[in-house]
Amino acid sequence: MVKGNKWKVCEIGCYLLTAIGMTLGVSTILVYGSEYVSGLIDQMAQGQKIVTHSRMLQIGSELGLLVLIGFLCSFLKSLSSGLMSMNITIWLKKAATAQVMRIKESALSGKSTGALINRLTGDLGVIERYLQESFFSLLSAVITVIVVGTSIYRLNSRIMFQTAFLCMFVLIIAFVTSKKLSLLAGGRRGRMDRLLGLADDFLRGIVTGRSYNLYGIMEEKIEAAANEVLENEYRRTRISSHSWLLQTVSQWFPTFAMIAMVSWDAKTTHISTGEITYVVLMANRLLKPFSDIPVLLNETAEAYASMKRIRQMFSYEAESDLGKGEIPMMDSEYAVEFDGVCFSYGERKVLNQTSFQIKNRQIAAFVGASGGGKSTIFNIFCGFLEGYDGAYRLFGKESQAYSLSRLRDCFSVVSQETFLFRGTILENIACGRPGADMQEVIQACKTACIHDDIQNMPEGYLTVLAENGGGLSGGEKQRISLARALVKDAPILLLDEPTSALDARTEAVISEAIANLKGKKTIIMIAHRLSTVSQADRIFVLEQGNVAESGNEAMLMSKKGVYYHLRKKEQC
Amino acid sequence: MGKVLWRALKWMGKRSLWYLVSIFAMAALSAGLDILTSYVVKNLYGYMESGSYERILGLIAGGFLAGAFLIGFWRFFTIVYNDEAKKASAVLQKSVYKKALRLPIDAYQNNVQGSFLSKLTFNVEQAADVYGSRFRRVLTPFISVAVYFAAMAAMNWRMAFLLILLNCILFGINLLMNRPIKAVSKKMMDFKAEETGTFSDILRGSKVIRIYGLQHQMQERYEGILKKLCRVQKKRTQYLAFLESLNAGFDLLSAILFLAVGIFMADLGYVKLGELAAVYVIYSSFSYHFLQMGKYVPELVERLVYMQDLFEFLDLEEEPGVGEPVCLPDFASGQPAVAFDNVNFCYSDGTKLFEDMNLAIDNGIITALTGRTGCGKSTLMKLLLGFYPIQSGKILLYGKDIREIGYAAVRKLTAYVPQEPYLYHVSIAENISYGNPDAGAEDIVSAAKAAGAHEFIQRQPDGYDTILENGGQNLSGGERQRIAIARAILKDAPILLMDEATSALDLESERIINEFINRYRGEKTIIIIAHRQATIRSADVEIQIG
Ligand SMILES: Nc1ncnc2c1ncn2[C@@H]1O[C@H](COP(=O)(O)OP(=O)(O)OP(=O)(O)O)[C@@H](O)[C@H]1O
Ligand SMILES: Nc1ncnc2c1ncn2[C@@H]1O[C@H](COP(=O)(O)OP(=O)(O)OP(=O)(O)O)[C@@H](O)[C@H]1O
Ligand SMILES: [Mg+2]
Ligand SMILES: [Mg+2]
């Protein structure tokens, strides 16, 4: 990884150096060509005859060579600058995705997907375009100005200082406006975030939106957000039009002023016609890039604003993986234990001194009111939430003893809300464990009662799913995600309402299949239909963030506590 | 491409006039500036030769004044231009965003390729560049070249024609590159969509990725797309580099050729030195613009590809009746509230679901829809709401075909709790109020109470004003469901559709909701999809599907 990075840096460095070198080359050729021509004009003004056969041939071949070199230089320049910007963006993109997969899960869930996508496509696009176009234009402008400056200095130092003074003036104004623009550019991207976040939200909730005729509301919000972007744009163009003005003035005025100065000088000192022509050429042809500097500075400011936003993405807190990397002891007595665990989301306390022990290779179940913290417990199991008090032991050791990936290796999860990737059904199931073969996938699907349904689809296992399983029924998604968990074959299976969308018959078949895993795996499930959990070895009833009672079905029924009453209610 | 450009201009409506006028004015005025400079230069040589320095002073002062005047006008037009360009981009942006909300439901669920988000971010930004700069950059050179040419021809026609000839060749070569560049940007667009889709999967599936250790796999998948993108982009870079160097080389060549020929002619006495310098001053601007014409045409074409894609998107058929005003049918007619009459339906991918389906549900009755998972229960509700067109037969509400009633009105008549309800990124209160935007705070609270949601809402950090993040990630599954139910309750429509609306609820919460349902027995038509026996038993009728 590090080695790969080094190579990448080397490669990018090479492109950058080539581009800089070639920019220098192109500018030098321009200056050299102009000097050459002014020399010719001087000779002519002094009455030398240059239109002789041999002279023409020589001049022609020299100039031709110049053109050829110029052609090559500029080809290499734009090629290497293009490759450089492409490599940098791709590098940033790779790093950004890697980073997204490292960010703390709890930090990620609060971020709007639309906004993050906007950073990846929008901001990186701005940076890419900048690196490819404006960055080198700026560079070549600066180089050209320096080369021309020294060349004029050789000719006449006073003109050079006068020009430098003019240039300074233009630059100062340019800097001031670009500062303001940077802020506005950042504002624009932030507003775009909001607009895209809105659109993403509405697109995901499109079914709900349609059935409630929310079109008007959505349209209004989009309109308002888009108008905010536009307002910001107006403000931005007001300021950037200053630099346009600056561009034109500095394109025109210095040329004019220089000509004036030179011709004034010609009155007092001796300047040849050739030299004047030279200055005119320089002023016109070579100061043009200078006039682009204000506008280019603006673009730099905008790219900088985008870069800041990308950098911000890298500053999100990553999952701290300080675990010592211990290997779980699968034969310990208890699979998971909570000892006085307290957890709250911000102010909102969810778990309050929760303690329980779940025996290895048994079936355990959590029941309790909706919002009672069941899914929260699962999230703590998987290391998605941190900042809890108390002890969470996995296979007899404190959870901190394991690295996060080891810890997660211990769990297969079917979460309450299924998530499926774009891609085929096969990919979605086989990704449970790298290297899983077709046989295993089919076996898992049979256990999850989905094999036949998949076979009945037009393209079977190769059916391509749209975003988040679009085109499947709720129960189908749930069973596919169960099959994926079964393929993983982890020692602990976490099932958060895995059958909530299934009819009673299918549920019974799956329940039986799950019960058959007893003795091979630890199974922990959450269910609201108490009948689903009745075969569990131990049922934990959660109340007020605490385990109110626990035991198997028979024990709990005879206790005539919370569970008993719930069960009675369900049956009637 | 010409057609796309034409449409892009028409899209601006009357404003396009201002837009075009300001481009013309800007180009002409800045060309005027260059001609002014060249005029000054031309006379400068003359005055210097004759040694009349006072006239030089006058010349420079006059030139300066005229320049300031021209710049003043120019500035006015830049502001007009910029505002119009931004406005046009914004209009395009808005229409695309709005369009993205108007497509038939099928378009969202079978959108396998990539995501709309790529269209909304990348494509819109690229296409907006047409208004922002690319079109002007192509048009300006044409105008200024014409102006310069006139000026040059007036000074020395021989030189002018030579230059035009040189540059036309260059322009022709540039045009040849249009086709490959177009192909490349089409490909880039597709890969971009794929890239965005994968990235959004990475974001949304973060938990699955972490628990199954898929970081590596997803990274590889993403990098695979980047690699494809990279290959196309390399090609694009090569094309552009070739064009640019061609232009730069040609520029040098023609500048030098011009000087060489100029010197030659001066030597032979065809032109004066002052004329030469003057023509050259114009020429440097002229060739600069001519070069840009060549350089910017391919860039414009590239952006027009995106523009075309957006126009195609805007031309997609919309779901009929989205956002139209509503007029309700007569629902006291004694007809069954909901009826399916010989309905045949299969999904666009060929999944056949209903064949000659007949069904009638009387007004004011509670119906339980049951059946094996995947048998089409949810689909039935979606058909009722008009989300998918049926192949044949009729779906009737109160005896009237839903296509006649109009989808907006059908949805006004029904309160639907989908199997996977969605909560928007706004406050809880606003989420509920979407059921009935006119409802007051009290109505919202009483709907929440009826859905058994009031209590936990009050426990949230900001109560009803708590903002829900990312589709309600900061709520538990059952809490999300109850908010969705509260929304349906607030809507108070004559038909209530609940698709496994209580699947994640505990008994107590479900009891509250059943109570609510029972209260409306005989008054509202309620269709429930459920698996729990108790719920099914409480219905008046059970309809088994499949
Ligand atoms: N990301 C979060 N931020 C803030 N609060 C949260 C977050 N996730 C859950 N909560 C709150 O914590 C409480 C417990 O949530 P949890 O998802 O654990 O409940 P649950 O027992 O799984 O409920 P259900 O049966 O409805 O799924 C809920 O009241 C919920 O509002
Ligand atoms: N947009 C779609 N495109 C193609 N096929 C679809 C689409 N939506 C659903 N299907 C298919 O149609 C069938 C019925 O789906 P539906 O969602 O109506 O089932 P359901 O009865 O609600 O099942 P569940 O109880 O699991 O929710 C399924 O086999 C599903 O794969
Ligand atoms: Mg839960
Ligand atoms: Mg369904």
Oligomer: heterodimer
Instruction: Give the low-confidence spans of chain A.
Output: none
* Strand proportion of chain A: 5-15%
Mean pLDDT of chain B: 84
Provide the fold topology.
The complex is a heterodimer of chains A (572) and B (546).
Chain A: H1 2-45, H2 53-100, H3 105-109, H4 113-155, H5 157-204, H6 206-211, H7 215-268, H8 273-286, H9 288-315, E1 334-345, E2 348-359, E3 363-368, H10 374-381, E4 389-394, E5 397-398, H11 404-409, E6 411-414, E7 423-424, H12 425-430, H13 438-447, H14 451-456, E8 464-465, H15 474-488, E9 492-496, H16 504-515, E10 522-526, H17 530-533, E11 538-543, E12 546-551, H18 553-559, H19 562-571
Parallel strand pairs in A: 3-10, 3-11, 6-9, 9-10
Antiparallel strand pairs in A: 1-2, 1-4, 4-5, 7-8, 11-12
Helix pairs in contact in A: 1-2, 1-4, 1-8, 2-4, 4-5, 4-8, 4-9, 5-7, 5-9, 7-8, 7-9, 13-15, 18-19
Chain B: H1 2-11, H2 15-50, H3 53-100, H4 105-109, H5 116-155, H6 157-176, H7 178-204, H8 206-211, H9 215-268, H10 273-315, E1 338-346, E2 352-361, E3 366-370, H11 377-384, E4 392-397, E5 400-401, H12 402-405, H13 407-413, E6 414-417, H14 428-433, H15 441-450, H16 454-459, H17 477-491, E7 495-499, H18 507-519, E8 525-529, H19 533-538, E9 541-544
Helix pairs in contact in B: 2-3, 2-5, 2-10, 3-5, 5-6, 5-7, 5-10, 6-9, 6-10, 7-9, 7-10, 9-10, 15-17
The complex binds adenosine-5'-triphosphate (2 copies) and magnesium ion (MG) (2 copies).
What does this protein structure show overall?
The complex is a heterodimer of chains A (572) and B (546). Chain A is α/β, with parallel strands linked by helices and 572 residues long. Chain A has a domain at 334-571: P-loop containing nucleotide triphosphate hydrolases (Rossmann fold, 3-Layer(aba) Sandwich), CATH 3.40.50. In chain A, 65% of the residues lie in helices and 12% in strands. Chain A has 19 helices and twelve strands. Chain A has a six-stranded mixed sheet with strand order 6-9-10-3-11-12, with helices on both faces. A four-stranded antiparallel sheet of chain A has the order 2-1-4-5, covered by helices on one side. A two-stranded antiparallel sheet of chain A has the order 7-8. In chain A, strand 4 (389-394) and strand 5 (397-398) form a beta hairpin. The two termini of chain A are 62 Å apart. The mean pLDDT of chain A is 82. Chain B has helices spanning 2-11, 15-50, 53-100, 105-109, 116-155, 157-176, 178-204, 206-211, 215-268, 273-315, 377-384, 402-405, 407-413, 428-433, 441-450, 454-459, 477-491, 507-519, 533-538; strands at residues 338-346, 352-361, 366-370, 392-397, 400-401, 414-417, 495-499, 525-529, 541-544. The two termini of chain B are 52 Å apart. Chain B is elongated. Chain B is built from 19 helices and nine strands. Helix content of chain B is 67%, strand content 9%. Chain B is an alpha/beta fold. In chain B, the strands form two sheets. A five-stranded parallel sheet of chain B has the order 6-7-8-3-9. In chain B, strands 2-1-4-5 form a four-stranded antiparallel sheet. Chain B folds into two domains: 2-314, ABC transporter transmembrane region fold, CATH 1.20.1560.10; 338-544, 3-Layer(aba) Sandwich (Rossmann fold), CATH 3.40.50.300. The chains are: A alpha/beta (572), B alpha/beta (546). One adenosine-5'-triphosphate sits between chains B (109-110, 347, 349, 351, 353, 371, 373-379, 419) and A (471-476, 501).
